[in-house]
Amino acid sequence: MPGVEGFMYPNEVSLYWSVLIVLYPFITGLVAGAFILASLARIFRVEAVKPTYRLALLTALAFLIVAPLPLQLHLGHPERSYEMYLTPHRSSAMAMFGFVYLWYLMAVLVVEIWLDFRADIVALSQSTTGWRRWMYLAMTLGSANVSPRALAIDERVGWLVTLIGVPSAFLLHGYVGFIFGSIKANPWWSSPLMPVVFIFSAMVSGIAAVMLLYMATTRLRRKLIDMRCVDTIAMYLFYIFIIDFSLEMLDLIHRIYEADESFRSLDFMVHTRLYFSQIVLQIFIGTLTPLVLLFLTQVMKLHEVVRKRIYAVAGSLALIGIFAMRWNVVIGGQLFSKSFLGYTTYKMALATREGLLVAIALTLLPLLILAVLVKILPPWPDAEHASIREAV
Amino acid sequence: MRVFRDAGHLFRLAGLFAVGTLSFFIIRAFLVPRSFGEYGHYRGAAISEIAAHPIRFAGHQTCETCHTDVAQTKNSGKHAQVNCEACHGPLAKHADDPSIDPGKPDTAVLCVRCHAASAAKPKGFPQVDADQHSNGLPCQTCHQPHNPAIAAGGAK
Predict the structure, then answer these.
(1) Is the ipTM of this complex over 0.90?
(2) Is the pLDDT of residue B156 over 60?
(3) Is A262 part of any domain?
């Protein structure tokens, strides 16, 4: 059989979980990571990253809206998926995930964004005309109270929402790791470390994404990049990346030491089918290279321009590395036979419902949504409250 | 009471959530089928709905009442245990009204469904690599489908 080497059970030959299921943890990871970066500014009061606070929130929202789409496209009957909310089964991890998702979207992210932007929304509802005015008026919920006391209350409530939001973000992404980690029939996935590794890699990818988005949007707006801000973000990126990498290595060492009956088969797979995506892309290009680059920025006095370039390269490589990690988990877990005697191949389709083109579209869609969101709710630090000043 | 006035927008938000949650439960009451949960985590009515499906398979005993010749051929060969409709597909309509022509199965796709060589099949099961074995010829040029052993003189 083409693509098959050794012995595969008949139902293992073709993969069920495609590139879209790779994209899904990648996108939710960006949500959780972006939110945790935002919470740095809010909960941990890291003033330096403040300029990215609102952008991070909107980024999280844009990606969260897209997060369930890959799953919908994977379903045979997407039009029935809402039934999961109507009659959820308590033993279904996916059904429970639906509620975690809804909670995170409605009770955390939207509320926090609303509270933070409320003053701007009120100001915009007064300074705009036509349908925009109606949109902003609807968003004020009919309350134009932006007195200092009201804003102070918002600030405190927003803080509380963020406080709830951090464990929620952990839950959201820990859940994705849980779904893989709890599949006990699959030795490549079944590991209690899975949710933890997923959360830390999510933080890496989310922080890298917001850093890149901040640098890119500032560039596009022809404004100066706040170097104190990106330096701080890069520092956090570096530290969290180290933790993430150590955890992954811990998992690896544990597997090597334990060397259970699946080990030879998985080891062979990593050295053959997954060699490029795991060893080359994930570990060398996507992890070690950005780590070394970020390390250099921490120990050497580099010129601003050099630092910016390094951050851009390291951030992009980190994103590639995390995507490769998701790929290796999702695709890698389906390439070997549960008999440990054979391997199959994943052939990505191009223009099908779960093909490459759809995957590319789904990657670009959040950016499109983000572009619309920043039009509606400008998150830029220099414009913050400028509209209010105008209006008052 | 100033706190209440200055937190007014938060009460509006809470109200919106309450309305949202309430409408969820109202919509849910309409959408969840009546019989859901009657016996378990599914629609109780599903059982009678499925039972009400028209019967599509006639069963080999029915076929054999009319096609005694085929039944005889088949029962003397290795396909004795293979049901008529495993190859011919569901034919209850034809059994009710023989003037409906059921057509003949295409052996190029039919036979390999069971006989394509695969390491996952028991060693004793007769299996062939169709490309090498028949070189593209339809299987029934050499095998009589109802009694496929060539040695049995089944060749047509």
Answers:
(1) no
(2) no
(3) yes
